[in-house]
Amino acid sequence: MRIVVGMTGATGAPLAVRTLQALRDLGVETHLICSRWAETTLKLETQLSLPDLHRLAATVHRLDNLAASVASGSYRTDGMVIVPCSMKTMAAIRMGLSDNLIVRAADVTLKERRPLVLVVREAPLHELHLENMQALARAGAVIFPPVLGFYHRPRTLDDVIDHIVGRILDQFGLSMPVPRWGEPSSQRDAADESPLL
């Protein structure tokens, strides 16, 4: 399996890192494209360097390389996830403004009718954000805000991140071991839970 991973400068770098780790662990060939601001956010939100991030991917493409393999529909992939996805990138995809490789690869993914998952990061949302989301959803993209779940009783930030990433991977028919609704959780002992958690 081959998945393109775009990473923009919106907050949420740990989600991108965990997504790449999970895909690597599942044996998926990943093609990573980072925006310039994604590199800045990575430094602010994680302890990883850019070379550390690159080592998690099978192939790394430059943002300005519109001759890269993933810029063509004839290069077969199983879809693309942009995690996190900034409002700027989402707007560019909606307009078909393929001025960098993340947007071009997303455009290719849509035109080839492959899964495109946009892990959009912004709050609150104004009308233009919502219009862009609606237009892209109609075009076939999955709009996936990284909404927190609490039914699995997360105890750590890693629990929260893993649950979100597990749900992202579901969109590609992939599975990682995360708690799911309706499944018993042997890792939770009600006796030591606080009233809220």
Automatic annotation (TrEMBL):
Which E.C. number(s) belong to this protein?
2.5.1.129
**Which positions are annotated as binding dimethylallyl phosphate?**
Y151, R167
Q: Supply the InterPro entries for this chain.
A: Flavin_trans-like (IPR036551), Flavoprotein (IPR003382), UbiX-like (IPR004507)
Q: Where does FMN bind?
A: G9, A10, T11, S35, S86, M87, K88, T89, R121
Checking Pfam families in the record gives: Flavoprotein (PF02441)
Residue ranges constituting the Flavoprotein domain according to the UniProt record? 1-172
- Reactions catalysed, as given in the entry: dimethylallyl phosphate + FMNH2 = prenylated FMNH2 + phosphate
> What keyword terms does UniProt attach to this protein?
Flavoprotein, FMN, Prenyltransferase, Transferase
Please explain the role this protein plays, according to its UniProt record.
Flavin prenyltransferase that catalyzes the synthesis of the prenylated FMN cofactor (prenyl-FMN) for 4-hydroxy-3-polyprenylbenzoic acid decarboxylase UbiD. The prenyltransferase is metal-independent and links a dimethylallyl moiety from dimethylallyl monophosphate (DMAP) to the flavin N5 and C6 atoms of FMN.
Which protein family is it in?
A: Belongs to the UbiX/PAD1 family.
> What NCBIfam families has UniProt attached to this entry?
PRK06029.1 (NF004685), ubiX_pad (TIGR00421)
Q: What is this protein called?
A: Flavin prenyltransferase UbiX
- Originating species: Alicyclobacillus mali
Lineage start: Bacteria, Bacillati, Bacillota, Bacilli, Bacillales
Gene (name only):
ubiX
